[in-house]
Amino acid sequence: MFPVIRPKTAIRTALSALAVWGGATFSSLHASEIEASPSDKGLQEIVDTAQDGDRILLGPGDYSGPIILHRPVMLEGGDDVRIVGNGTGNVITIDGPDVMLRGVTVTGSGLDLSTQDSGVFVTPNGDGAVIEDSVISDNLIGIYLSGPENATVRNNIIVGRQDLRVNERGNGVQLWNTPGSVVVGNAISQGRDGIFVTTSKQNRFIGNEFRNVRFAVHYMYTHDSEIRDNRSFDNTVGYALMFSDGLKVTNNLSRGDRDHGILLNYANKSEFSGNVVDRGGEKCVFIYNSNKNDFRGNRFEGCGIGVQFTAGSERNVIVGNAFSGNRTQVKYVGTRWLEWSENGRGNYWSDNAAFDLDGDGLGDRAYRPNDMLDQVVWAHPSAKLLLNAPAIQILKWAQSRFPALHPGGVIDSHPLMAPPVIARFEGDGYHAE
């Protein structure tokens, strides 16, 4: 049995293609709609006979992979449509421009990390590729954008190999040198990292959800990009941003991530606003050798440490944030004073027993989250045994009366009396706009 081909007029096809593909370019307006079923000839042969702009509709059932898409076609499935690999290499390779893959289940890639075996692999020739509304499950890497420009990964469910150890798994979505590409609205679980991007720029990761991975979002050498409206639940780290500059990180949630909510390592000149890290583990935010970052209007609560600074991080602005219920609000070992207020406005600290006698919403005296004894305990943990000794209590009293005894550290000269409101995160759940 051969597939049914239904010719369309040039105008009707062009309008339909523009409506569905959102402005992709085509080399031919005389496109066709091709209906296929598992009983037809091989899927690769059907794809090879299609013309630019053709729409290939797959009926229910299993289709054998691997397949390669060389030209701008739409490959669309529906309920119970699966493309199943043979356990080696990639299941689907997109090697031509303006390809759309929609509404299929892709499974059965190889397991070789050295060859980056993937459910869907997009080569540098795959500019403008769109992978959407699909289930990408039980592959080594879910979707790999390896060099295309302006590709889109949208509204997919991506589940990794649960039979492998975490360090043997691939990433849910992996990106390399793919400027302008976006990853939006996906549910990603059971991989190594949810999204891993390296050596790229101008990428946007928006509205994705991550569970049971190592890092929800992992940046390496990627600049001038955006992370917005994502949710990370119960992972090892929420947002790990490394060796990357010029990032905009806004309105993201990290809830229950075990080590860090936000981790900066050599990340510079980036903006963080409207983010919430709560019910976290070791650190809400860890800043390592990262400079000139701006944190405003974020909420960090329920962690072992609210923010830890180390390795010479300089000229970071931290203003208008809420630090609530952290066992240690700030950990900073250094002799310099770091002022965490700007233009008469600082941060909210849940353990700041302050008064506001003039009613301006600001504490009447400066807040210092750490003192000399904190630094001694950090450097010599066994000193905790002496914290209740009378001499230690006298030293604490002396420092409270004579601030000059402080060795340096963070000071908030204008602490807030109430935390900033982040409406989208109020209550127990995540509320998208």
From TrEMBL:
Protein species of origin: Thalassospira xiamenensis
Pfam families xref list: NosD
Keywords assigned by UniProt, alphabetized: Repeat, Signal, Ubl conjugation pathway
Signal peptide range: 1-31
Protein name: Carbohydrate-binding protein
Pathway: Protein modification; protein ubiquitination
InterPro entries in alphabetical order: Carb-bd_sugar_hydrolysis-dom, NosD_copper_fam, NosD_dom, Para_beta_helix_rpt-2, PbH1, Pectin_lyas_fold, Pectin_lyase_fold/virulence, SCF-Subunits/Alg-Epimerases
Carbohydrate-binding/sugar hydrolysis domain: residues covered: 50-198, 204-365
NCBIfam families: NosD_copper_fam, para_beta_helix
